[in-house]
Sequence to fold (464 residues):
Amino acid sequence: MLYRSSIEVSRLTRRQALRRLAAAAAAAPWAARPALGQASAPASASAERPNLLLICVDTLRASHLGRFGYPRGVSPNLDALAANGMLFRRAYSTSSWTCPAHASVFTGVYSPAHGVDNPDCALPPAMPTVAQLLQGAGYATQAIVSGPMVSRKQGFDRGFDDFDDRTYVAAAQVSGVQDPKLVEEILLYRTKSADLIRQNAERWLFDAPRPQPWFLFVHFWDAHADYKPPAPYDNLDPSYSGPIDGVIKSDYVNADMPQTDLHHFMSLYDGEIAWTDSQLGLFLKTLVDRGVTRNTCVILFSDHGEEFFDHGDKGHAHNLFEPLIHVPIMAYWPGRLAAGAEALTPVSLLDLAPTLLDLAGAPTPEWMQGRSLKPLLFGEAPALPQVPLFGALFFRQRSQLCILDYPLKLINDTAARTFEVYNVADDPAETTDLYPATHQLADSLFPRLQAWWDESSAIHARFA
Fold:
């Protein structure tokens, strides 16, 4: 089933609602100042050892951002961040759900190397994380997370002086709930905490003298289902009357749902993006006002996207198609990075760890499978040599691998023993499988997929 969300935003009431949202965001005022990031407050981190701010907006589909052509105007601050920094237009996740994607961000290796294939798995004890490496290089490290799939259980707390998973749990009010499954259900689907996460990040930065340089990881979960944005972000489809309330497990949310219901379901998801975007705008404004951005490189990414029956399913963690693994990565450092630059080199989330280490002047371990994006960030090279990117999904009875040798993408369903090949430049919706007509495309890509699997397995064995 093809993507069915391109319904024209034609009703005047909806336009008015979007204008109110844009006005509420104040047109990203933090990005509109001539002296962007040049506030007078002193900062002690040097240009050689900058502060590093890594932000994840969980479940953020790239094609729902204005910078990627989305017409609804739900991401003014994210769009301004890209417009005033660098956007990696062809960025990809290593999987289609949170745990393995974050494991790749923190280690710089693919899923078969780190082994975090389900929520009960953990990073190999001997495999260093980027936080540990930065900590060893003299950085103060802090994480503020807001979802149960970015947790201590997977070893994601390693290397952080403090791993704040307390704030969002307290907001969920689960202390009196005895059933562990119900607690998990609440934390997965009912937690809304973007404002609290922002406030905690600001408190960590400003309430006490902060050792520098520092590495701060901030994780926003709210765009994850269920889609229950606060007002006014719940009103992008004001004339709707029907049964859709944003609950993804509702029987009404299915591949045969009416267009009006699907549109409203997606409007609630867009509302979650708009709500999170508003909190990011407040956070970025504070950073600019306090002069933090003078000596801080901000990198923002999403771990995966979201599907609305593009390929027959809802949510994520069920395939490796573009809606789930094509993600935004953007970087912002006023006065240091060229505003409005766009990189077309295909890059992966596992490139973030080597990039952070390179920015910090710390060596990148030879076993990391990612590479530093610093040459692109600083204009030292117009592009990096293109290398194949890989993805893996081993979750909920799904077993899939993919290789992207842009623009060709091979998806191997290892359980069904099937292959699909797409040209994602000519066919971004992946509607035309090239494999039946051109088996040689798969034949040329599969040996590299096998070589990557062997390399990743060897890394895992090294640290197991």
